[in-house]
Amino acid sequence: MISSAVILQNHHIRPSAQRLVIFDYLRENKVHPSVDSIYQALLPEHPGLSRTTVYNTLELLAKCGLVVPLDFGEGYLRYDGETIPHSHFQCERCGAVIDIMESPAECEKMLPRGSSLSSASLYLRGRCPKCNSAKP
Ligand SMILES: [Zn+2]
Ligand SMILES: [Zn+2]
Questions:
Q1: How far apart are CA 124 and CA 133, in angstroms?
Q2: How far is the CA of 112 from the centre of ligand 1 (A)?
Q3: Domain 4-80 - what CATH class?
Q4: How many angstroms does the Cα of residue 109 sit away from the middle of ligand 2?
Q5: N or C, where is the chain less crowded by C-beta within 10 Å?
């Protein structure tokens, strides 16, 4: 895996310690976290971090296409460290967002005949395996 510092430099972003911590977190945790959950996760080990820094860093990374902001209609944005176009499955019980890396050929079958697909990003809802097996 290319180091986060090199990726930031390639996008002309100064790889400050805090930016690297945030970017690393998103690359390693494909859980589509919000600003707040990233902040809460990093705070114990990085007490100098502020919510504003997390927010500003995410905005900067998103502008460069290094993370993808996602709006699931929850009243806040989530951020995706996976930049290859893909679909999402959200659990309506616990809110977990799971990546679905479907093949474009599969999605193309849903289009009217003669159409062509350039990218696919579906939003699917249901219950995750954990919630499905939980007692009511
Ligand atoms: Zn669930
Ligand atoms: Zn995703």
A1: 19
A2: 33
A3: mainly alpha
A4: 22
A5: C
Å from CA of 59 to ligand 2 middle: 17
pLDDT of the chain along its 136 residues, tens only? 899 999 999 999 999 999 999 999 999 999 999 999 999 999 999 999 999 999 999 999 999 999 999 999 999 999 999 988 899 999 999 999 999 988 777 888 889 999 988 888 889 999 999 999 987 6
14 C-alpha to ligand 2 centroid (Å): 26
Neighbours of ion ligand 2 (CB under 5 A): 80, 82, 99
Query: Which ligand is nearest the CA of 125, by number?
Result: 1
User: CA–CA separation, 75 vs 131, rounded Å?
Assistant: 23
Per-domain residue ranges for the chain?
4-80, 87-132
Q: Look at domain 87-132 and name its CATH class.
A: alpha beta
Burial of 82 (0-12, 13-18, 19+ CB in 10 A): middle
